[in-house]
Design goal:
The protein contains 23 helices and 8 strands. With about 575 residues, it is of the alpha/beta class. The strands form 2 sheets. It has a 6-stranded mixed beta sheet. A two-stranded antiparallel ribbon has the order 2-5.
Length: about 575
Amino acid sequence: MRLHLSRPDALIQLALLGLVTGLLAGGIIVAFRVAVEGAQAGFLPGGLSENYEALPLWARFLLPVVGGAIIGWIFYRHANGLHVLGVARVMERMAYHQGHLTLREFVLQFVGAAVAIISGHSVGREGSHIYLGAASGSLLGQYLTLPNNSIRTMVGCGTAAGIAASFNTPLAGVIFALEVVMMEYTLASFIPVILAAVSATAVSYSVFGGEPAFAVPEMQLGSLGEMPLVLLLGLVVGMFSSLFNQMIESVAVRARNVPFWWRATLAGVIVGLFAMVVPEVMGIGYDTVNAALLGEIGLALLAVLTITKLLATVASVGMGIPGGMIGPSLFIGATLGSLMGLSVQMILPQMQIDVSFYALLGMGAMMGASLQAPLAALTAMMELTHSPQIIMPGMLVIVVAALTASELFRKESLFITMLKASGLDYNANPVMQALRRIGVASVMGKSFERPDSVVERSDAETLLEKGPEWLLVQGEEGPVALMPALDLARFLQENQEVQEIDLMAIPARRDEVAPVHIQATLQEAMELLESRGVQSLYVERTTAPGIQRIYGVLTREQVESAYRY
């Protein structure tokens, strides 16, 4: 099964793994939500999970400060220098570490994000859900010692499951996983990711029900005469998202050298100060988003909410508080869209526009522009509200906002911004992406023999009778060279009198070799060829302590054939 999974078209096996990953990730997301929402309902007035507004003034200040100090202490004691989690961490591990995530990171994300949300920090739960889902798939794949190309697919499955179980939005989960994390659209990735999203949604549905995240009335574009307003909203949101990204980047860069304990506590102080005046900035804030979608918030309060939520999120995310950025972007987009809708309604009352409609458009535009994930934002906007009629104007506003941020202001997604601000990098080279999808076991040559460097003529003739394509020449401490069996056959034919053959001395092609693990992808093989300065690899796996089994050989030409026309 492992050998078959190294191929990029192992659909049946990958589909099964996707289904299992979705069930596992869905259960973990449900556990996270139950823990967080149960804790919130336990101490917030009225037993409501987002009723921070009812807390006394001193509690609204102290809660995020204490939460920040606890997060700082946990990471100080257990993080070993790791402070970038969430979607950015998943992307970095996919780009450079074949999707391998650790149990330590999983626990830190679960506990850290739970404390952050419960204590009212301005972060979302979706980024944490994505990470927990992705880590579930990665850890399962590592436990089963699957090929790394399969582990990458399971990380994508976990990502889709995290989004799907978070919102009951399976399609948005699939699109987000393919568009942002995996960055590929192939049949071998679609099918397992879809199954993971469906199974995770089923788990979430069985516990929380199937109601949409936001209860809004049916809404649609009033007339084509409103299209200029939709364009204007896209421009405004694009500029605002660029400001959002720039502020987070600036704070993250300046805070990078400050000890994490102090950073987390300072973030709590800043959020606490804002919360004393505007308690709606605390926590995820979906109750405020729903009120904005229903047009229940006045013009002045919308302006205050937009600015304070922006600043509180910049403090939380920029200082490194573990949590998601999708929730705050939806909050800011909804209040910004509602603010514009109300303003137009006051200036041009004859247009009779629907304020809720612009709040919904603002949500999608802010998510699409700040995360540079337009298709995922459009799908999420539709599934979150069960409003398919939003598609046409939603496509326009999201594209305009995303282009404004990326082309006019040259801003990358928040995830890449956070990586670079933390001193990391991200590379989505198309050739590397092609190589990551294929395991070495599906390309390696299996027709080989392992002779000693010096052989007798009779042994060499017996060896060649087996018809090998390659000879992996053995030295005192393991393989030392790879040569074509045809070169030995030619030497034997041309030198009938020679009885003892030194395979390292006869005229032949001899490639220096290095080992590569059977779980590796062709990307890892290419990097190993470059770093070790060799032309060929032998594929091995430890079958017992001190015992290495060699499964095949891999030449540079075989690796390059995966992407050369």
